[in-house]
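Table S2 (text version). Query chain:
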Amino acid sequence: SIEASVAPMLHSVGSLDRRTALRRVAGAAVLPVLGSTMPTEPVLAKEIPPGYVPRGLQAKVVGEKVTTPNGLIYEPLELGVTTEGNRDGPPTSGAVVEVKFTGHMNGFDGPVFDSSALRGARKPAKEDFVEVRLNLEPSLPNGFFEAMKLMKVGGKGRFIQPPPLSYRDGKSKVTGDDDSQVKEIPANTTLYYEIELVRIIKP
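Corresponding structure-token output:
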């Protein structure tokens, strides 16, 4: 009890007057009790925004898979250039790049729902790549941006994109490319991409 803890302290106050002694003893006895009942705030994990990749995280060994904090799994097949200029990569948010890609459902050998070749075939130049601004291209999902941030120019690879990094955060169905084999991508679908970073136009 508080009383039991105060008694020995009263006995040891010596020449102090009783009022001062009581004040000091009461403060010493009550503070630990107050401290023990103070509520503690839970420490919440910081939310990682989709499309984010930590600086320095990139693919460095062919075949060695890299997993981003949001759960995207990227496997490099070719690493690309070894130089370190600002147009060599990896690109960062806001960079404008040229990229080739093919998106599949049900595995890397599954039906194609979108690709740079399909998109390019409808353009006069019939290009097999598309120009993309990282994190700001509405026709591509956040997982796509995370993968590109792991790559150097000339790099080729493939990645598995979990539903939260997909179109509309994977919460609703979306349509495939008009000329693709897939007309509808259901909600909560894992997607599979092959990708090549062709060029960084604007770092």
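Notes on Table S2: The CA atoms of residues 37 and 129 lie 63 Å apart. Residues 1-16, 25-36 have pLDDT under 50 and may be disordered.
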